[in-house]
Amino acid sequence: MSVKAINAYQKGSLKQDVASADPHRLTLMLMQGALDRLAYAKGCITRDDLKGRAENLSKATAIFINLRDTLNVDVGGEFAENIFSLYNYIIDKLTEIDTENGITIIDEVSSLYLPIKDAWAAISEEDKQIAYSAAQGENV
């Protein structure tokens, strides 16, 4: 099977996953996407692929900006404010990357963010339903 066909299949599969995902799953997909882009950027740095590094870091940064901007600090309180600050720190660190320090910064950002993503993934179905019910109650 050609690389082009595999990529087309993966894009189609991703679109289907996004269309059928609940908000929790969409957030998890974004979190994983950011970590994937960081890993790709790290590989590009080791191969001296400046274009690939820039593209992947740009996509990772855009994901972190999106995740940060969707936080509701009014509802999440101090916890949401802390996560907001973490996103700002990550975004700042990613904009500091150059050829000398890229892998070190990517490793730092990944090690800071992986526990957040893992904790999000560990949220039980029952807790998700409680959160969805509470959110719907607020919108009424």
From TrEMBL:
For this protein, the record's InterPro entries field holds: FliS, FliS_sf
Q: Which UniProt keywords apply?
A: Bacterial flagellum biogenesis, Cell projection, Chaperone, Cilium, Cytoplasm, Flagellum
- Chief subcellular site? cytoplasm
Q: Which Pfam families match?
A: FliS (PF02561)
Q: Which Gene3D superfamilies does the record cross-reference, listed alphabetically?
A: Flagellar protein FliS
Localization, per the record, is: Cytoplasm, Cytosol
**Would you say which domain of life the source belongs to?**
Bacteria
Q: Mind telling me which NCBIfam families this protein's record contains?
A: fliS (TIGR00208)
Q: What is this protein called?
A: Flagellar secretion chaperone FliS
Q: Which organism is it from?
A: Glaciecola petra
List the gene name.
fliS
